[in-house]
Automatic annotation (TrEMBL):
The lineage of its organism: Archaea, Methanobacteriati, Methanobacteriota, Thermococci, Thermococcales. PANTHER family: ABC-TYPE IRON(III)-SIDEROPHORE TRANSPORT SYSTEM, ATPASE COMPONENT, METAL TRANSPORT SYSTEM ATP-BINDING PROTEIN TM_0124-RELATED. It comes from the Archaea. Signal peptide: none annotated. Residues 4-234 form the ABC transporter domain. PROSITE patterns: ABC_TRANSPORTER_1, ABC_TRANSPORTER_2. This is Iron ABC transporter ATP-binding protein.
Length: 260
């Protein structure tokens, strides 16, 4: 079943167009990573898919995303933002907020069990009673992901979820996204670390200047793509059967240095 369909999406902030005719179709069960230079429009696209920005061109499970009610959408899509704001609430209560679309007046046994389960899954059960404004950046990031998982969505959107995380936690978050997709959900992750993406995801969408410039599996990852998209010369080697992208030089750097 098609989870997401984006058709000819244009998006403008204050008169400046940052998405220029984006086309994208994602099937249920896929794990897709969106890559590209700073300012390419990746986060804007993710927010359009999540119904956070008002865009007419996005369908989720065959229905315009803007037609879903707030609670309906929260049961279908969970969005983990690039930055999350800490507060006075405990970790447990913050993650419990993810159950809001399912809850009556008070949390059910199932709501509480779900929160316990995702705290365990993210390895943060020991932080349950700590206020989120007393957490490290990485811990806060894990709380934000736990809250999204507590929503039990069908689509998980994460914007640079591995920022702030140590290597082990980066691998765990990527494994969580992969498992989510293997279990039938759809993971769409914006990130910069192409090598981490390569280890876990099957499909890569590259954006530049508000358009999708490449979309496919490992076979699209050729040195020429990195020159076109980032202006960086790379070599691609295999380590343990996994391709690794090694940056060699920034194409414009020598010229820029000459002018200094
Ligand atoms: N709220 C906003 N108001 C105005 N312009 C914005 C806003 N958010 C983003 N932009 C602009 O839109 C463009 C695309 O931004 P976006 O955050 O989608 O890019 P990105 O590819 O996610 O970048 P990065 O990798 O740096 O996070 C940028 O030029 C940015 O300055």
């Amino acid at each position: 079943m098609r989870a997401v369909r984006v058709r000819n999406l244009h998006f403008t902030y204050n008169g400046s167009e940052v998405l220029r005719g984006v086309e994208l179709e994602i099937e249920e069960g896929e794990f897709v990573v969106i890559l590209g230079p700073n300012g390419a429009g990746k986060s804007t696209l993710l927010k359009c898919v999540g119904g956070i920005l008002n865009c007419g061109a996005v369908e989720v499970f065959g229905r315009p995303v803007m037609d879903y009610s707030r609670d309906e959408l929260a049961r279908v899509i969970a969005y983990v933002p690039q930055r999350c704001e800490p507060g006075f609430m405990t970790v447990f209560d913050t993650v419990l907020l993810g159950r809001r679309p399912y809850m009556g007046l008070r949390p059910s046994r199932r709501d509480v069990e779900t929160v316990r389960r995702v705290l365990r899954m993210m390895g943060i059960s020991h932080l349950a009673l700590k206020p989120t404004n007393k957490l490290s950046g990485g811990e806060l990031q894990k709380v934000s992901i736990a809250r999204a998982l507590a929503q039990e969505p069908r689509i998980l959107l994460m914007d640079e979820p591995t920022n702030n995380l140590d290597i082990k936690s980066q691998l765990e978050v990527m494994e969580t996204a992969r498992k989510f997709a293997e279990d039938g959900g759809t993971s769409i992750v914006v990130m910069h670390d192409v090598n981490l993406a390569l280890r876990f995801a099957r499909r890569f969408v590259f954006m530049k200047d508000g358009v999708v410039v490449a979309d496919g599996g490992r076979e699209i990852l050729k040195p020429g793509l990195f020159e076109d998209v980032y202006g960086v010369r790379v070599r691609i080697e295999e380590v343990g059967g996994i391709p690794v992208v090694v940056p060699l030089s920034h194409l414009g750097l020598a010229e820029e240095l000459k002018q200094v």
